[in-house]
Amino acid sequence: MKCDLRVELLSGYLDGELDKKQKAEIEKHLKECEACRKELEELRQLDEHVRTAEIEEPSREFIFNINRRVLEKVKKKPRFRLFRFSPILAPAAVALLVFVVLININRPVSFASLDERILYAEVEAKKELDIEIPKAGFAREEVYAKGVVVKEKKALTTSKVPTMAKARDVEVFDHAKKGEAGALGIEAQDEIISLTEVQELQIPRDRIVRAIVDSNGKILKVATGNTIIPERDTMLENRLQGQQLSPPLVKGKRTQLYIDLTQEKVTKN
Amino acid sequence: MYNSIESDEFLIERVKNGDCESFNPLVERYKLPLYKIMYRMVYNRDDAEDLVEEAFIKAFRAISKFEIGRPFYAWICRIAVNNAINYLKKERRGQVQPIEFFEHSLAAKKGNPVEMTKQKVLQERITAAMAKLPDDYRTIIVLKVEEDFSYDEISKVLKIPKGTVMSRLARARQKLRGIFKEMGVQKK
């Protein structure tokens, strides 16, 4: 005869886990129900079988050496594992990566990646950063609004040498003496260097023109456009690349510089 | 050196104070009982030995959290069982299940009954039947039937409600009974 007593109760009774009331009910039921008595006996038998299940003997290595192995391992300090912090570090790294990508997404790669030493002169000028022009003995007579010297002057160490100028006062030199360009910043130099007017560079007047000039004054990259951040102009760059200007000095050190060569506002004087 | 007379509490106190060697007698005392549980859970000697070792190492590193006065064996059992449960969940995927080993073993011996006593055959069949149980059923049966943990203790180790312990244990017993019948495990 099949009984509808819940099997959990019989199992719980066998384990002695029922409360007093349940226990009393089960005991009463067991007296009346032969099927449940038989079921309970089978469960007891099953538990006994489980306890007699075979166990493979542990190895001699385990029996004799586990103490030593455990001690050896616990005496070593646990290694620092970076991956333990991966739940925190991984999302942070992803966020940082996304941030870096987002802030660079609209930036012209050619300018951003050219050289870490690039100084954005226009921005720095607002901070009144002093930029020293080369001590090549040139007296500046005209300065463009955007800061490009135009007048030619043949001289070496004159008393008129302006040692400090604002960021916008970036001089433009002729490229005829490229060979000596590297020595422009040296005071003892005795070469005569002629300056050319900036117009000789034939920079278009209808748009913003900016260039990256290396620490020796050589034009490296050129960008043009009518936006705040001009885009690289390979055609103009091919023409101007390698033109020798004066090596820009910032706080007495030669440095690569991002200068403005825009001609449309060259109206001063 | 320490001998078996030293109480668990004394030894643990020493370990807590930085005496690593005091952990030795505890390992000596509990390595075999723990091996037995681990073996019943994973049915593989090498894995069981590794799990015992890991349990001792974890216990040592967490010894500062152990409250003196509570039973050390129950505490380390909990560490070992949890570790073994994680092992079963992660490491066993894709590996040969222990039952295959036992079935092979039984098949090999079927043809040569003379070598085995009746009792030995019965034991092997029971072991094979246990290995056939799903991991969660086998774990709960090992904890209750072999180790005589209370439902409360099992509930804490397995992180399941007490009511679930009761129902899972009943289902595990029913399942095992079915397997016993299939495999011809007779009453004693």
Task: Annotate the secondary structure layout.
The complex is a heterodimer of chains A (about 270) and B (about 190).
Chain A: H1 7-14, H2 20-32, H3 34-51, H4 60-75, H5 86-104, H6 109-112, E1 119-120, H7 121-125, E2 131-132, H8 178-181, E3 208-213, E4 219-225, E5 231-232, H9 234-240, E6 249-250, E7 253-254, E8 257-260
Parallel strand pairs in A: 1-8
Antiparallel strand pairs in A: 2-6, 3-4, 3-8, 4-5, 6-7
Chain B: H1 8-16, H2 23-42, H3 45-61, H4 72-90, H5 98-110, H6 118-132, H7 135-146, H8 151-158, H9 162-183
Description:
The complex is a heterodimer of chains A (269) and B (188). Chain A folds into two domains: 1-77, no CATH class; 108-269, no CATH class. Chain A is built from nine helices and eight strands. Chain A has helices spanning 7-14, 20-32, 34-51, 60-75, 86-104, 109-112, 121-125, 178-181, 234-240; strands at residues 119-120, 131-132, 208-213, 219-225, 231-232, 249-250, 253-254, 257-260. In chain A, strands 1-8-3-4-5 form a five-stranded mixed sheet. In chain A, strand 6 and strand 7 (253-254) form a beta hairpin. The longest helix of chain A is centred in the middle third of the chain and has 19 residues, at 86-104. Chain A is elongated and about 115 Å long. Chain B folds into two domains: 1-95, Rna Polymerase Sigma Factor, Chain: A (Orthogonal Bundle), CATH 1.10.1740.10; 96-188, Orthogonal Bundle (Arc Repressor Mutant, subunit A). Chain B has helices spanning 8-16, 23-42, 45-61, 72-90, 98-110, 118-132, 135-146, 151-158, 162-183. In chain B, helix 2 crosses helix 3 and helix 2 crosses helix 7 (135-146). The longest helix of chain B has 22 residues, at 162-183. Chain B is globular and about 55 Å long.
